[in-house]
Amino acid sequence: MGDNLKKNMIGALAWSSVNIFGIQFIQLIIGIILARILMPADYGMIGVLFIFIGVSTVLIDGGFAQGLIRKKDTTEKDLNTIFFLNLLTSAVLYLILYFSAPLISRFFSQPALIEYSRVLFIAVLIFPLYLIQQTQLLKRLDYKSIAIVNIVSVAISGILAVILAIRGFGVWTLVYQQLAFHGLKAIAFPFFLHWKPQFSFTISTIQNLWKFSIPLLGQTSLNAIFNQLYFVIIGRFYPIQQVGYFTQANKYSETVNAATQSILSSGIFPVLSKIHDDKPRLLRIYRKLITSVSTITFPFVIFLMVAAQPIVVTLITEKWLPSVILLQLLLLANLFTPMFTININVLNAQGQSATSLKLEIIKKTLIVISIISCFSFGIEVMLAGFVAANFLAYLISMASIKKSLRHFYRHQVRDLIITLMISSITGIITWIIPYPANTAAIKLLYMGVTFLVLYLLAVMIFLPEKWSEIKEVLKKITTK
User: What are the TM regions of this chain, as residue ranges (predicted)?
Assistant: First the structure.
């Protein structure tokens, strides 16, 4: 890996990590406070609306943001064209959602959703106001500015939400929190990128980006729909508080899943795009990413599964105990998601967005099959089907990597299997040990120390190269 590329990649990953984990940490703290004040039904009311926000932001983007990042000779006309296209799309979508509010309300049998949704959907109008600035900063690998904007926005909007929750605003707390978050980003980005749109619109820009962007649009649209699909199903066929329980379980699962995916997607794609025509180099970086990411995510996910009950009770009290089994299943389902995300990014960086779209379609098809097969047996069995679908989708993605990078199956398995076995055995031992704890918090502390010590000992013995890397990182941290 060249020095400049390596430096850019490390810098991108470092600030992308600060951005994502900073947001996750603040949201975790704010979420704990809000969950102790608000009720499961409050989260349920808003949870069923997030699918509309998610799909709308994807349609507004249209896949053109990554198209602009990948394009080497981006011009002002390109930026202006996509900006006004995004703005027009957002206005049309808001009008559709505004007049569809009564239908949404009837679908979920919740009359109050009409008022909540029409206000919440204003976020759709705010999103395009900062999308192009964010895209330009991503293209420049300026993750420092992005991190500052995001962390400040989530912190201020979170503080506002806590104040509103204490004052008894209920569901409106979560509505205003979302609007404040997007609004603050729209205000803050111009301070870090002094770009003002000028009215110009060229069809040639859309035509040039269309071939690459359309498969990405299909892929991200599928992701947006399926990320919220279980909220819709549970909200439609189960009591609204069940959506609240699922919301909390999904939130803690996303602590590792969404954070890792965001870092990999935003921090890795621009770098890999620069070397997409050098297959041997790309393969080396790919294997390094896979082994490094699995060394971190496998033990983290497995520990969260083992310690799910004391985590939930300690953080958000026993009123959320029904979330525990849902959290464990979601964590298991997303065990290989970071690796699947790396595979998708490698394919996209090589211009094989059509192949990555096919993989997403296959994955979503498997999820639909699992839902149809397991829905009648209850939420837990339905999520067990989700686990099976995700595992099978990752195995299929390995075939695309084999073809694209000539990376044999046995090597792909070898890159993961030792870390997975070490993490699993450590998790089992941590689970079965009896702990002399009277409270959930003390039990959680015992389990955390036990898991950490056993895992580091196993890495020291069975993965000496990784242990050397860990020591080097710790040495740099202590030196600084």
Answer: 12-39, 45-69, 81-101, 113-133, 145-169, 175-193, 289-312, 324-346, 366-396, 416-437, 444-463
Q: Are residues 303 and 415 in the same domain?
A: yes
Inside any domain, residue 259: no
Contact 416, 395 (CB under 8 A): no
Give per-residue pLDDT as tens, 269-307. Answer: 666 666 656 677 878 888 888 888 888 889 999 999 999
| Residues spanned by the domain of 470 | 275-480
Is the distance from CB of 258 to CB of 55 less than 8 angstroms?
no
3-class SS at 306? Answer: helix
Residue 270 lies in a domain: no
CA distance 449 to 75: 53
- The helix-helix angle for 3-37 and 240-273 (nearest 10°) equals 170
Same domain, 304 and 375: yes
3, two tokens? 């020095």
- Both 212 and 285 in one domain: the answer is no
User: Do residues 401 and 412 lie in contact, with contact meaning Cβ atoms separated by under 8 Å?
Assistant: yes
Do 279 and 232 lie in a common domain? no
Q: Please list, in sequence order, all residues whose beta carbon lies within 8 angstroms of the beta carbon of residue 395, skipping any fewer than 6 positions away.
A: none
> Is 62 inside a domain boundary?
yes
Across the chain, which distance is largest between two alpha carbons, in Å?
A: 69
**Residue whose pair of structure tokens reads 């067990």 in the numeric block:** 384
What rounded mean pLDDT belongs to the chain?
Answer: 86
Alpha-carbon distance of 157 to 174, in angstroms, equals 10
The reply to whether 260 falls in a domain is: no
Amino acid making up residue 161: A
Which ranges in 350-439 belong to alpha helices (H)? 353-374, 379-405, 409-432
Domain count, the chain: 2
Within 8 A by CB and 6+ apart from 43, the residues are: 35, 174, 243, 244, 247, 248
pLDDT at 422: 95
pLDDT band at 210 (very low <50, low <70, confident <90, very high): confident
Q: Which of 73, 208, 173, 189 is nearest to 131 (CA)?
A: 189
Q: Label residue 454 by pLDDT band (50, 70, 90).
A: very high
- 11: tokens are 């810098």
Do both 228 and 285 map to the same domain?
no
Q: Are 106 and 236 in contact (CB under 8 A)?
A: no
Q: What is the pTM of this model?
A: 0.77
Instruction: Give the tens place of pLDDT for each residue, 315-344.
Output: 998 999 999 999 999 999 999 988 898 888
* Helices within 62-202 (DSSP H only): 64-70, 76-108, 113-120, 123-126, 128-139, 143-166, 171-192
Tokens (6 digits) for 79: 């930026």
